[in-house]
Write a structure and sequence with these properties.
Blueprint (H helix, E strand, L loop, with lengths): L48 E2 L5 E2 L7 H14 L9 E2 L5 E4 L1 E16 L4 E4 L4 E6 L5 E2 L4 E5 L2 E7 L15 H12 L13 H14 L12 E4 L3 E6 L6 E2 L4 E7 L3 E7 L11 E5 L5 E14 L9 E10 L11 E19 L4 E2 L5 E7 L2 E13 L2 E5 L8 E4 L2
Parallel strand pairs: 10-11
Antiparallel strand pairs: 1-2, 3-22, 4-24, 5-15, 5-19, 6-14, 7-9, 7-13, 8-12, 9-10, 12-14, 15-18, 16-17, 16-19, 17-18, 19-23, 20-21, 21-22, 21-24, 22-23
């Protein structure tokens, strides 16, 4: 930085003062609250406040650029300085702080729900009477029945494409290939796994139907199978054995079998929700479990009252690095610490120590004995009321000026 760099002031300098400095007799420094400690190993640096309706609201810990500028200008008005590199005596700042070296973490807490993830409904595709259902809490694997209608089993298969038509000889498509993969995985053969439903496929289907006690038609009727990504857990019953089920009516709900944590974030905190990102889950017993963000989705939450507008939220699903650590809890409220960014072994100062320089950028006022000088700095991560700084003349333990 060249000579002539100065601190932005609130007005013209009084007679006898440095024309590029700040009037030491100017307006009193703005009151600032206590600066929260930066998040460092061994400390949390977290804060909570509640949403309407008692739900935990994520608290913004990272300082935005606007807040940084406001803090810097407040600092500039609160204490004076001179050209960079020029030491002056007799104009010491009203308060000071030390430059520290630490790990700075942009981290925010949220409340999550430990459970089995998204719940889906298995429905009847044609009318009939519900004659059997898998028990709640039970696990159903490929080829096993979820429920029965008119004593005909509705079987779970694995796949992502929902069943949407009856399959028969002459049909082709991705749904045919998905079904044939399952048929092969169940041990049936004599056909080629491809997207063609041939007479050989129909022969294998007849054998499969015979093993299930179904009519041997060689066709896969719509509603005879339900597809899920993998093994499922029956969550609840929506019908009772003996109920007359109409087409489309739900029989039972199911989830995945892996315990996961689901948390909801405000849209402004979307930076925290990156697939593959690392989080820390604190269980009800106080144990911390490492987790990874598995899915990120945008959802619409309806208002709790008639006059409340729907809100857009970010729903995050977290899987545990050690699933066994969650085994003691079927469902529970947990704390989730999201980390958006982290800087290791960096120099930091309180955000209020920043000075807005007239030509742009920021500086700090170094205090050396009875003298001070302004040093330009490059800012990095803002978090927990502190900011990462770098630049010539900066060292751990050095003293910087602060507003009162």
């Amino acid at each position: 930085m060249t000579a002539g760099t100065s601190v932005t002031t609130a007005g013209p300098a009084p007679e006898g003062s440095d024309p590029d400095g700040v009037d030491p007799s100017g307006p009193p420094p703005a009151e600032t609250g206590p600066v929260p400690a930066a998040t460092v190993p061994g400390g949390t640096g977290r804060a909570h406040r509640r949403r309407r309706g008692g739900r935990t609201r994520v608290v913004a810990v990272a300082t935005t650029a606007v807040v940084a500028v406001a803090a810097a200008v407040t600092a500039a008005v609160g204490f004076g300085g001179d050209d960079p590199g020029t030491a002056t005596a007799g104009t010491l700042p009203p308060a000071n702080a030390q430059i520290t070296r630490q790990t700075l973490i942009d981290s925010e807490p949220a409340t999550g729900e430990l459970g089995y993830g998204e719940t889906r409904t298995a429905a009847v595709r044609s009318g009939g009477t519900v004659t059997w259902m898998a028990g709640t809490g039970s696990r159903v694997t490929r080829g096993r029945p979820l429920f029965s209608v008119d004593n005909a089993k509705v079987v779970l298969l694995y796949g992502t494409l929902p069943a949407y038509r009856t399959l028969r000889s002459g049909d082709s498509g991705a749904d045919v290939k998905q079904f044939e993969r399952n048929l092969s995985a169940l041990g049936y053969d004599g056909f080629t796994v491809d997207d063609e439903y041939t007479s050989a496929t129909a022969d294998a289907v007849e054998q499969w139907q015979d093993d299930l006690g179904l009519d041997e038609t060689g066709r896969v009727e719509l509603g005879q199978v339900v597809y899920a990504a993998s093994e499922v857990r029956v969550d609840s019953h929506e019908a009772t054995v003996g109920d007359a089920a109409q087409p489309g009516s739900g029989v039972l709900t199911y989830t995945g079998t892996a315990r996961v944590v689901t948390a909801t974030l405000d849209v402004e905190d979307q930076r925290l929700a990156k697939k593959g990102g690392k989080v820390t889950v604190t269980l009800p017993d106080g144990k911390d479990v490492a987790g990874t963000i598995a899915t990120v989705e945008t959802v619409i939450e309806t208002g709790s009252g008639a006059d409340e507008e729907p809100e857009t939220k970010i729903e995050v699903t977290v899987t545990a690095a050690d699933p066994k650590a969650l085994a003691g809890f079927d469902s529970a409220s947990v704390d989730v610490a999201f980390t958006a960014d982290q800087r290791t072994d960096v120099l930091t100062v309180p955000v209020a120590a920043l000075l807005a320089l007239a030509e742009g950028g920021y500086g700090v006022q170094l205090v050396e004995g009875g003298t001070t000088r302004i040093v330009a700095v490059q800012t990095g991560l803002f978090a927990s009321g502190r900011v990462e700084i770098s630049g010539a003349g900066l060292a751990e333990g050095a003293t910087v000026g602060m507003p009162r």
